[in-house]
Fold each of these.
Amino acid sequence: MMLGILTEEFQDFEIEVVDIFSELVDDEDLMTIFNSFREYGTEILYHKETMIGKQAFTNYFFDRIKQSLAKRLVDRDYLFTFQTQSFFDASIEGIPHFLYTDHTARANLRYPGFNKSNLPSDLWLECEKDIYHNATMNFTMSTNIANSIINDYACDSGKVLCVNGGANVSVAEDEVFDDLRYANMNILFVGIDWERKGGPVLAEAFKIVLERLPNASLDILGCTPVLDIPNCNVVGKVPLVEVSEYFKKASVFCLPTRLEPFGIVFLEAMAHKLPIVATNIGAIPEFVIGGKNGYIVEPDNPQQLAEKLLALIESPEKCKDFGSYGHQFLWNTYTWKKTGLRLRENIEQFIYN
């Protein structure tokens, strides 16, 4: 997605793409393995972490990427460099460098139930701090992560800017949806990680919903939990082109996630004019506005979740109003085109002056 945005906004320039992990590093290198044990030996030995899962979060691996990238780019004349996500430092001295990310490691500390021991090592966290300090400008998908870079990593606020993001769906702004779906009493969940996305909490809440509305239904996409609940349709993974059909027949979108740096799937629901019930974590309260396009609930609270789901599916008119508000809010604020324009405007200040 970001390559397409940069290509569109910088049409007069040739763009070179470097895949850091496949082109520049070897995760089977003996020193990589040694340093993984050095920083995460206890977790690996007690099977709390896997070797592969921690190799990229070592000081040694971080330095290798930095050195390999510098060697790769040293003889080329670049106007600027641009990296997505903050797992490495692609900055080169003398070249304006920009970062676009939806997360930081330390932002995880604000999620319910997150164990501090699951953070990368202190050595790697210092490396992560260098990523933000070495960037000419840090662009983020949310204000939540912009604040984390400033407050958790002591980065100058003048080097951090939220430029938002967009929905990855081919839905037109003026697309017409069937308003009769709001009376279907159909709740939609879309997520691969059932536990992390709050699936068990939704399952408990749905049981409460059924006590009052026995004809309500729940569709689960992306994962295959084993559930023995009436009217619960576990679909599992489906091709992306088919996901839209489930959005189009749903009455409400619900994802009571426990850990979510951003959550593009919420924007996809808004693109389909669906009201949303979600948790008050991460960036979610920035685009799910309580009482406007959905409801915000506390994590791990099935009773509160059920109450908000009932408030919507018992009122098709409210579903329609919330869905319309969210749809317009999306097109006014969260589109990749708007993100691309903000990126170009801010990058140009550094490459043409």
Amino acid sequence: MALTNSKSIQQKKAVLRQQLLKARQAIPPQVWRQKSDRICNHLKALPLFTEARTVLAYCSFRQEPDLSPLLQMQRPWGLPRCVDNAIIWHRWYPQGALPLRPGAYGILEPDPDAPRVEPDTVDLILVPAVACDVKGYRLGYGGGYYDRLMSQPVWMGKPTLGIVFEYARLPKIPKSPWDRQLDGICTESGLYGVAD
């Protein structure tokens, strides 16, 4: 019974993921840029962001909200590189860093020789998502990278913000037992805490 229920949840997630990705791809480039810039402005006004020693971020892919304006700020960043079924975080600075290059999924990643991020210096993780719900659960691409990351003791307890466009902030997302809850959500409309 549990296996059947798990399969049903995965099918619901797959259908929802496909619908939401199609809607995201339909956003006109100028509107996508405006919405992305508003998200960046909300983050720049957030003390948790401005006071963080290191922020883990991502490079936009498939019209995800684009954080590249933030990545030009003079501060330490961590950017992900997918290796097998794990995420490796590398330090990245706007000037003097090795160039980013496409990784296994075509997403821009740091050079494997770039220094790694020390987890104890990380004060905020900006998490890409297809969608998030008001309780802080996210719908990702189905690989489980971020759920595995947030289940590791070294990363547990780090503040996490899901980054999505407002249309993808939903009342409820189908949830699997391994899904990890985020602490908040940032969209072009603002910052949201997680409902209880």
